[in-house]
Write a structure and sequence with these properties.
This protein has 101 residues and is mainly alpha-helical. It has helices at 2-24, 29-59, 62-87. The chain has three helices and no strands. The mean pLDDT is 81. Helix content is 79%, strand content 0%. It has one domain (2-87). The radius of gyration is 18 Å and the shape is elongated. Keywords: Membrane, Transmembrane, Transmembrane helix.
């Protein structure tokens, strides 16, 4: 089972690189570095959380499992939203046909 999780982690990492690459290269150099750093940090925290939950759930540590789900899921969602905002996937749409006086 853990070999399968490692395989899925690698596939998702490469998929994320392919997905982010066109949007990350359009920005300034510092923003590109920030985007890639946030992606790697988000990915590492997400899979650390998944492995932590998997290990604790397999040995029956209910309290540690629930705490890890809360902690790692919260951090992962916050980082994902920040990364999506920086890449332009979410944000305020600009009015294209604004009447100017």
């Amino acid at each position: 089972m853990s070999t399968f999780l490692i395989f899925i982690a690698g596939v998702l990492f490469l998929g994320g690189i392919i997905f982010i690459k066109p949007r990350a290269k359009r920005e300034l150099m510092w923003k590109t570095v920030l985007n890639w750093s946030l992606f790697v940090l988000w990915y590492a925290i997400t899979w650390t959380g998944i492995s932590f939950v998997y290990i604790n759930a397999s040995v029956g540590h209910v309290k540690a499992t629930s705490t890890a789900i809360f902690l790692f899921l919260g951090i992962s969602v916050v980082l994902a939203v920040v990364l999506a905002r920086l890449l332009g996937f979410i944000g305020v749409k600009k009015a294209s046909n604004a009447v100017q006086a």
